[in-house]
Amino acid sequence: MCGFLGCGVPIFEIRDKGGMTDMLIRTPALGKALAASLADKFVVLMRGHGATMVGKSIPEAVFRAVYATENATIQMQAHQLAVNGEVEFLSDEESELSGKGRNVPRSWTLWKHQFGGG
Question: What is the rounded end-to-end Cα distance, in angstroms, of the chain?
Answer without folding.
Answer: 23
